Structure formats: structure tokens, C-alpha cells
Amino acid sequence: MPAANRRRETWAAFGFLSPWIAGFLIFMAGPMVASLVLSLTDYDVLTSTDYVGAENYRQLLADPKVRTSLANTLVYTLLHVPLTMALSLALAMLLVRAGRRSAGFFRTVFYLPTVTPKVAVGVLFLLLFNGQVGLVDEVLGWAGIDGPNWTADGPWIKPGLVLMGAWSLGSTVIIYLAALQNVPRDLYEAAEMDGASPWARFRAVTVPMISGALFFTLIINTISGLQTFDEVYTAFYGSSNQQSYGNDAALFYVVYLFQQAFQFLHMGYASALAWLLFLIIVLITVVQVRVGGRFVHYESE
């Protein structure tokens, strides 16, 4: 191909990519650089900006609220991610066995909660898990179980939020369903002819063949769990219920970051908190890729 044609195609490619490049520079790279600069300052929007160097980072290392919120977020993520993945895989396997017409209906039913506004989910949490009039405790009462006060009893707040988080597992179900439908049927037939039990077929055929989808959802759901905000803030820190429900058991990291930035106007400190979360997510993702990548089966191998 002549050099002139190659240059023309290159410029054409850049032309098609330019909207994404502009969006990335303006809405991602630019704000990231700005927040990094702000993290080195004492900035409250209303007064002049003072350079403080690494003071914000030293402060967050000594801030007990940072440790509390980070611990709450990590515990929630450790509970939420395995539960979401296990329930999603179970539902996806049921959909594979269902007929085409019913599978399409239930696929829609499972996915619809994913598009529900997170604020509505937070309000729904208060309605369902209220310790006095909540539907969850009422159902438990039918079985003779005295349910806890999910919204006020500290040890039960995060388990309640984890159960509520299962409301929006539809996207993970769809990913697993697509992966399961791509598993060759002859592998199951060969394993069955060899006398493999259903559990052995699941462990030796299903899991390796969908390991790529499992690995992907592990990373995505972990990142999402570490950034949990909307439902928690709506349920525990909204203006109408903060005095009734808000306590440190529901203080998640991004909630604390939001408070520092938009309630107390500590923009520099909030920027430092954001960069700490970014580094934590990068570190966890790198560990997951290094460790989990070894167990992913690729068809070309």
C-alpha cells in the first residue's frame, strides 16, 4: 500500500477515535490530574488555595474514620462478591435448562432490577429491612425467627446491605448465561459417558470453560463493591434519616469521601482519599490478575 494511502487511513482512524480521545482527556485524564494537584492543597472552594504538600496524605493515614470506612467497605466487598457470583451462576444454570421462551422471560426479569435507580434501592432497603415493620423480619417471624434490626444493629447492617446488593445481579447472570451457552455439549456427553457425576461435570467441564467469565465478573464486581455509595448513602445518610440510622457500621469509604468533599468542603483531603482508593483498587486488581489469571482456561491452550 502506498505511503500516502497509509497516512490517509491513519488520519481517518484518528478522526473516528477523536470523540473518545476528547472525552477521555476532558472527562477522565483532566479531572484525574486536577484531583492529584488538589490532593496537595488545602482547598475548600470558598477561599484561596494553599499548598500543603503531603499533609493530606499524612492526615488520612492517622484518621480513624478512614480505617473504619475502609474496613466496612472491604468486609462488604468480601461478602458481596462471592454471594453475587454464586447466585448469578446458579440462576444462569437454571436458565440454560429452561425452554427458550421461558428463558427469555426470566432473563428480562433478572435484568430489570439492574436498571433500577440506586436511590430507589436504598429506599427499598429501609422498607424491607426495617426492624419493626420490615417485610424481611415479618417473613422470618412466620418461621418463628426473631429477625434482627437490620438498619440499626451494627453487626447486621453490612449483611443486610449484602443481601440487598443481590437485587442487582442481573448483569452478572446474563454474562454467565452467555458463557454457559458457549460450552460445547459434546464435552458434557463425553464426561457423562466416562461416568462423571453432575458435580464432577460441573467442576471439570463447566467451571474451566466459563472461567474467563468468572474471572471478568470477579474483577468488575470487586471494583464495584469498593465504590459502593448510592444505596448506602440514601439508606443511612440522607437528610431525612441520618439521625435515625446513620452510624459508623454504615460508613463506607466513598460515603466518607463524599462527606469530606461536599458536606465539609475539604476538597483537597477528599482528593487524597480518592487517590488512596484508586491505588487500593489498582493493587487489588493487579493481585487478582496475577493470581486468578493462572486459573483461567482459554480455548487456544
Explain what this protein looks like in three dimensions.
The protein contains 15 helices and 2 strands. The protein has helices at residues 3-38, 55-62, 64-97, 100-111, 118-129, 135-142, 154-165, 170-181, 185-193, 198-209, 211-226, 230-236, 242-245, 253-263, 267-292, and strands at 41-42, 50-51. The protein has a two-stranded antiparallel ribbon with strand order 1-2. Helix 2 (55-62) crosses helix 15 (267-292). The longest helix is centred in the N-terminal third of the chain and has 36 residues, at 3-38. The chain is globular.
List the helices and strands and how they pair.
Layout lengths: L2 H36 L2 E2 L7 E2 L3 H8 L1 H34 L2 H12 L6 H12 L5 H8 L11 H12 L4 H12 L3 H9 L4 H12 L1 H16 L3 H7 L5 H4 L7 H11 L3 H26 L9
Antiparallel strand pairs: 1-2
Q: Report the total helices.
A: 15
How far from one another are the termini? Answer: 35 Å
Percentage beta strand: under 5%
The shape is globular
Q: What value does the average pLDDT take? A: 86
* Spatial order of strands in the largest sheet: 1-2
Q: Which runs of at least 5 residues are low in confidence (pLDDT < 50)?
A: 242-246
- Output the radius of gyration: 24 Å
Element-by-element helix/strand order = HEEHHHHHHHHHHHHHH
* Helix proportion range: over 70%
Classify the secondary structure makeup into a structural class. mainly alpha
Largest sheet: 2 strands, antiparallel
What is the tally of beta strands? 2
